[in-house]
Amino acid sequence: MIFALSAPLEAQTTGDATLTVHVTGARNAKGKIRVALFRGAQGFPNDASQAMHTQAADVDPQTSSAQVVFAGLSDGVYAVSVFHDENMNQKLDKNFMGVPKEGYGASNNPTKKMGPPNFDEAKFQLNGTAQSVEIKLMY
Q1: Count of other CB atoms within 10 angstroms of residue 99
Q2: Where are the alpha helices (DSSP H) in 16-131?
Q3: What one-character-per-residue DSSP string does 53-74 give?
Q4: Integer Cα distance of 99 and 35 in angstroms
Q5: DSSP state of 9
Q6: With contact defined as beta carbons under 8 Å apart, do 111 and 136 qualify?
Q7: Most-buried pick from 9, 12, 70, 71 (CB within 10 A)?
Q8: At 10, is the pLDDT very low, low, confident or very high (cuts 50, 70, 90)?
Q9: Cα(82)–Cα(35) distance, rounded to whole angstroms?
């Protein structure tokens, strides 16, 4: 009986879609690229604890890029935020004015402006089985 109850719950939380995130434009191969996948505006883009999934990837020194794959996603609206954690402290370092000192970016590559991008600027629809987004880091 317990097994029968757990199966439908599992089906509601996972899907067959895969999202590949290509991050380009790293200025060096130090540290990690940290990627957060959001299903809604809450916490986006800076609070990874509110993200649906997070992953870190090494920077390929040949291409100055990194890639992460999120599997088992359901169709829906998502947004991705990334940053280049050069010093491995697991946060986006900023100067005294609040300007990032490390590379950052978001899905749809919103243009640089005062303050971080909002969810609406970065959101996209995930449909089907495999999709990819490319995010160029800004420094």
Answers
A1: 8
A2: 119-122
A3: EEEEEE-BTTTTBEEEEEEEEP
A4: 19
A5: H
A6: no
A7: 70
A8: very low
A9: 4
